[in-house]
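Before a colleague's protein record goes any further, I have to sign it off. What it holds is a sequence and that sequence's fold in token form. Would you go through it and say whether the fold makes sense for this chain? The record follows directly below this note.
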Amino acid sequence: MTEEGKMTAHAHMNLGVLIGAACLAVLGAGAASSAEPAQTIVGSPHDLRNLATLGKDADLCAFCHIPKDGDDASPSWNRAAPAGPFEGYSSRNLDGHSGALSGVSAGCLSCHDGATPLDALKDPANIVLVNPGQTMAAAFPDSMAILGRDLGNHHPASISYGAAGAGGASRLNPPSVSGSRVYVVSTSDGAEIPLYGAAPGTVECASCHDPHDNARGKFLRTANTNSALCVACHDM
């Protein structure tokens, strides 16, 4: 091979190496992107580890869920039931609300009532609070998320989605059903607003709030700009 041919072959080899490296970099970036974890409660207001003696070494999930083996996809609820009783929302224009909270919303109130100790756990794992018996009201005295037991000025929870009151269920957008899932789809971004139990399902705290995702603030399942979260369900 002539000297010119060697130089040309060497240049082609270098170009091939560069292209290969670029492809690997792109593939690596794609893999890193696909491996990025979904939004979690780490660092959010639901991350309560700073209240524990072990700090960040405390079990993050055990404040709500019983620690299970890694292959268990359905962690059991770990918190004690709130004492109650709770006074629910009532209106002459609203039908079908008993005022009794289901397990889903009662689970939220086991912290947000402001009275149940944050360490009232069935299995405390390694959680020992710096201030044993501390309640949410004591830990976060200025929080607007302390609901107390009078829920009369909050959206009704544990209410049948079909109980729209005046005008009937026609004033609500129809839910979708997929197997055991019942949900309403937000027209603003396609987010699913879950309903609980058999169709038509019930509206619970976790219908509008995703306790594991605070990307939009207030743990909302979809941004409420221009009341988008409200009109996902309410046919305005």
Q: What stands out?
A: The radius of gyration is 25 Å.
